[in-house]
Amino acid sequence: MISQFFVLSQRGDNIVFRDYRGEVAKGSAEIFFRKVKFWKEDGQEEAPPNVGGVNYFHVKVVGLLFVATTRVNVSPSLVLELLQRIARVIKDYLGVLSEDSLRKNFVLVYELLDEVIDFGYMQTTSTEVLKSYIFNEPIVVDAARLQPLGPAAIFMQGTKRMPGTAITKSVVANEPGGRKREEIFVDIIEKISVTFSSSGYILTSEIDGTIQMKSYLTGNPEIRLALNEDLSIGRGGESANDYRSSYGSGAVILDDCNFHESVRLDSFDMDRTLALVPPDGEFPVMNYRMTQEFKPPFHINCLIEEAGHLKAEVILKVRAEFPSNITANTVVLEMPLPKYTTRASFELEPGATGQRTDFKGANKKLEWDLEKFVGGVEHTLRAKLTFSQELHANIIKEAGPVSMTFTIPMYNVSRLQVKYLQIAKKSSSYNPYRWVRYVTQANSYVARI
Amino acid sequence: MGCIRVDKITEYLCDPLQRCLKDDDPYVRKTAAICVAKLYDINAELVEDRGFLDSLKDLISDNNPMVVANAVAALAEIQENSSGPIFEITTPTLTKLLTALNECTEWGQVFILDALSRYKASDAREAENIVERVTPRLQHANCAVVLSAVKMILQQMELITSTDVVRNLCKKMAPPLVTLLSAEPEIQYVALRNINLIVQRRPTILAHEIKVFFCKYNDPIYVKMEKLEIMIKLASDRNIDQVLLEFKEYATEVDVDFVRKAVRAIGRCAIKLERAAERCISVLLELIKIKVNYVVQEAIIVIKDIFRRYPNTYESIIATLCESLDTLDEPEAKASMIWIIGEYAERIDNADELLESFLESFPEEPPQVQLQLLTATVKLFLKKPTEGPQQMIQVVLNNATVETDNPDLRDRAYIYWRLLSTDPEAAKDVVLAEKPVISDDSNQLDSTLLDELLANIATLSSVYHKPPDAFVTRAKTATQKTEDDDYPDGNETRYSETLSNAANGGASPPSSSSVPHAAARQSAPAPAAPAPAAVPDLLSDLIGLDNNQIVPADQPATSSGPPLPILLPAGSGQGLQISAQLVRQDGQIFYSLLFENNTQITLDGFMIQFNKNSFGLAAAGPLQVPPLAPGASARTLLPMVLFQNTSTGPPNTLLQVAVKNSQQPVWYFNDKILLHVFFTEDGRMERTSFLETWRSLPDSNEVLKEFPGIMVTSAEATLDRLAASNMFFIAKRKHANQDVFYFSAKIPRGIPFLIELTTIIGNPGVKCAIKTPNPEMAPLFFEAVETLLKA
């Protein structure tokens, strides 16, 4: 089981250090930090290193390194999962997770750590359960300039339509106003991976989705969450290759899903409702994965032509395939260019605003940023390239693929929906704020050329 | 509780702990359960004496799942640190734990699943039952729970005979495993390493899911590498087109290591799937045409392997390969290309010109390339014995024998030379012999290791692909093993490769020079030496034979034996320390010497001289000590002869020795001769002749000595020890409460000793009476006997 747990700052300072079993020497934090720095130069990381019989695991959360050491043959996924969970619990308690907040609240943090782990064995990481054993009050740190954590953080960027305070609220601290605001957030976050072939067909497509919940309801009432009625799980015996048959039928077919332990699935098979008593803090209600074909939100078209000696032209067309009342933000397209490219001049469509183009000379990359991308619109970029040397082979072989990142709020490609969110509480006047939010993000969105 | 980890505190801890284990509040009980493990860590005996283990076992039946989980965790840890069976899972425990499993926290579930995975179901029915109870865990959001459940199921599956059930389980396990790949990259990596093991055992589980292992452009490099590995394992005739398309795409990416691995992957697929080989080759040719240097080199290396797998099938592409000849600058690629030229010399019109271009730089090439050049030239000569190649071979052999310091190269060249000069036909048979076809090595782990690793799925060892005892060292066991101890070669290279991303490691079929150890060459001659298959075998055999003859003969001389007494301490030898003793081995007397050089300079030119002594001991040959570097030591056995320059006067045990070396003055020291070294092997006497000799000797020749301090505890052990020193047991009789033993011994020049030992077994005091024609030897003899009895 784990021997030590510590949190390092980016500079390698020990912010929190807890030794549970006394089997690993004190210098471990330093040994580890050197190792990590060494990796950074090498560009490789994460394979759990073993130094002198001590195994180190770490995850990086908002620039902080959460590290655990052990001498035995533990389950690495267990430890990694635990580290993530500890980060989340601390964040739940402190409201904000940062070096500053950890330092100011170190008493609380150590108290938490002692409850979470005993002699290297995980006890509980449920914010809810921990509440009854934790007595220290958090000292709230001003969060305005700090980067928030967690998947819900994406709601913070761009449009300010979400109440920002909820994200950085501690589960135990009361609102400054004294009265606690009753609210619950349900976020459906989908990360999509699509690979287009050079002829525009979809080679692979996958959605990793999660329903994230954050509840600030007093008394923890039971909640019922209804999903699409035509939802089905498992592709049966079909292989991944013939999923096309299911497309168009309108049904949402998940390949696989898993649920948080608080979720009861009594009626899930019948009417696709999840019943749960939400624990305090942020947690994923359900994770799902699907490879059912969906309509990709963007269509990318890329053309490269040689335009005379040592010259070529790239035409990049992107069309948004979602309704026009929806806008994607922070859209970035990247494309590696042939390595003898010395110069690239760009030509945007007339009247384009909020777009930025760049040629990164060091790694020979074309970058195209679009602040906003309204649904149904097509944008085009023309780039003229100049080479310093004759190309060996076909120019297409040396350039591309085009990769794209974006965030589309209030849109999900899987058509998985929360039909209703019911809060079981007797009083009829009780009407807390309910936020159901959707977002689609690009994970690996690539078009080959 | 129990966090003060001091021995003194334990006695105060016991009573409260006893109470807490029976407390009403589950929180107290669960903390107490862990406390037992802590206490065991400090004082194991106390835990056993106070019966905490039983209380802990009772907690398994607790109604609170958290308490159960902690009790299981504590018991599992105690079991791990103890030798006896403490925590054995019986059928009732199993049922209890499986019930608790449903209600535990996620962490508790992992503890319980890990503990249960040690349980061996008695039959298929039971296994099916267990699996049925565990399967719902696959739906858990916590990756650790999923992996532990997978481990459990895989283990029970071994017992299940019904193919339907197995197929069904495989189907159920696939989606959760794939879902793990949506987690953070760290967890993905862990999952991939585990999947790597699982598909080696049960490829069907993920056979249809190869698409999910396609790399995403934002995957970290270590995840990509692992995915490639799994894609190769899952590649089949059905999906090879898709896979090749992906590989081709990867081969044009930016990261060099990844690109190389992708190119190798294509080659490995070609070797694995015969029907796809042609398509693989055409992809490789396309890649070569892009003319990116490292892609070309990597492609040539794998094409060489493809040629070895499918000899005489794809030579048509050689022309394309030859075009990129001048761009090669990596040794492995060069060596591979040269091998191809040599192997197909008769079909390449200008093979001699091509090789000649390499020959110009022969002395500067790395050994790997030199060896291949040598072999290729010999092949060329045997295939086209014309003037050009003849000149070339002269140059090469000359270069390889005279101008090089590399013994491998020189020896190989000499063997070729001799072969060619004695019997060119035989040379042809040897050099151009049919080579064994290589096979795909994508399932490299041998099955016992794989079994062990599969039993450890979801743990660190499944990530390292090493058995746990190879890297786990508890704090208490002070010896820290180095990481790479006792590893099967292939596995070690694999491991270091995946961790360090060194793409040129052993993942592809090993080629001759990437195997550095001579040992590896001996054990696996076929893959180790692609080019001149037969010759290096011969070579290594020769070497092996030599070693076998020399080494064992040397071994006892140089290493074994008890520590020798120090005769010249480093203090008085200006840093040179000499330990020495006379020993008898195989009927011969040796002077066993240990030289330790603690000076700052290298010492050499050691010589030894013995002064006149009672037995005329002298060196039978010169002292053989290699030059000693500072800090080095050497052990040697110097054969001795007797009666060379015997001193006069009554016999004594003094042996004066002088040792000198080229750097220091002569050192003198004294040693003591122990008579038992001279006891000869032919000293055994028959009972009758013993009695006769005893009677024939006058009583004045009988000498008696008592050793009051010596005790014989076991007659047999003593007899054995004495017999080992050539003091032979003749008879035994009882006299009152005493045991009387009779022995005989003989020293050179035929001087016999008749010995009578009287003692009470188990009591101190031994009386020794001897009769011998040379009673003046008696004091020496007693000294020897005393040493022998004391030993």
UniProtKB/TrEMBL annotation, chain A:
<dbReference type="InterPro" id="IPR001392">
    <property type="entry name" value="Clathrin_mu"/>
</dbReference>
<feature type="domain" description="MHD">
    <location>
        <begin position="181"/>
        <end position="448"/>
    </location>
</feature>
<dbReference type="GO" id="GO:0006886">
    <property type="term" value="P:intracellular protein transport"/>
</dbReference>
<dbReference type="InterPro" id="IPR028565">
    <property type="entry name" value="MHD"/>
</dbReference>
<dbReference type="GO" id="GO:0016192">
    <property type="term" value="P:vesicle-mediated transport"/>
</dbReference>
<dbReference type="InterPro" id="IPR011012">
    <property type="entry name" value="Longin-like_dom_sf"/>
</dbReference>
<dbReference type="GO" id="GO:0012505">
    <property type="term" value="C:endomembrane system"/>
</dbReference>
<dbReference type="Pfam" id="PF00928">
    <property type="entry name" value="Adap_comp_sub"/>
</dbReference>
<keyword id="KW-0653">Protein transport</keyword>
<dbReference type="InterPro" id="IPR050431">
    <property type="entry name" value="Adaptor_comp_med_subunit"/>
</dbReference>
<keyword id="KW-0472">Membrane</keyword>
<comment type="similarity">
    <text>Belongs to the adaptor complexes medium subunit family.</text>
</comment>
<dbReference type="GO" id="GO:0030131">
    <property type="term" value="C:clathrin adaptor complex"/>
</dbReference>
<keyword id="KW-0813">Transport</keyword>
<dbReference type="InterPro" id="IPR036168">
    <property type="entry name" value="AP2_Mu_C_sf"/>
</dbReference>
<protein>
    <recommendedName>
        <fullName>MHD domain-containing protein</fullName>
    </recommendedName>
</protein>
Automatic annotation (TrEMBL), chain B:
<dbReference type="GO" id="GO:0030131">
    <property type="term" value="C:clathrin adaptor complex"/>
</dbReference>
<dbReference type="Pfam" id="PF01602">
    <property type="entry name" value="Adaptin_N"/>
</dbReference>
<comment type="similarity">
    <text>Belongs to the adaptor complexes large subunit family.</text>
</comment>
<dbReference type="InterPro" id="IPR026739">
    <property type="entry name" value="AP_beta"/>
</dbReference>
<dbReference type="InterPro" id="IPR011989">
    <property type="entry name" value="ARM-like"/>
</dbReference>
<dbReference type="Pfam" id="PF02883">
    <property type="entry name" value="Alpha_adaptinC2"/>
</dbReference>
<dbReference type="GO" id="GO:0012505">
    <property type="term" value="C:endomembrane system"/>
</dbReference>
<dbReference type="InterPro" id="IPR009028">
    <property type="entry name" value="Coatomer/calthrin_app_sub_C"/>
</dbReference>
<dbReference type="InterPro" id="IPR013037">
    <property type="entry name" value="Clathrin_b-adaptin_app_Ig-like"/>
</dbReference>
<keyword id="KW-0813">Transport</keyword>
<feature type="domain" description="Beta-adaptin appendage C-terminal subdomain">
    <location>
        <begin position="679"/>
        <end position="790"/>
    </location>
</feature>
<dbReference type="Pfam" id="PF09066">
    <property type="entry name" value="B2-adapt-app_C"/>
</dbReference>
<dbReference type="InterPro" id="IPR016024">
    <property type="entry name" value="ARM-type_fold"/>
</dbReference>
<dbReference type="InterPro" id="IPR015151">
    <property type="entry name" value="B-adaptin_app_sub_C"/>
</dbReference>
<feature type="domain" description="Clathrin adaptor alpha/beta/gamma-adaptin appendage Ig-like subdomain">
    <location>
        <begin position="556"/>
        <end position="670"/>
    </location>
</feature>
<dbReference type="InterPro" id="IPR013041">
    <property type="entry name" value="Clathrin_app_Ig-like_sf"/>
</dbReference>
<dbReference type="InterPro" id="IPR002553">
    <property type="entry name" value="Clathrin/coatomer_adapt-like_N"/>
</dbReference>
<feature type="region of interest" description="Disordered">
    <location>
        <begin position="474"/>
        <end position="532"/>
    </location>
</feature>
<dbReference type="GO" id="GO:0016192">
    <property type="term" value="P:vesicle-mediated transport"/>
</dbReference>
<keyword id="KW-0653">Protein transport</keyword>
<keyword id="KW-0472">Membrane</keyword>
<dbReference type="GO" id="GO:0006886">
    <property type="term" value="P:intracellular protein transport"/>
</dbReference>
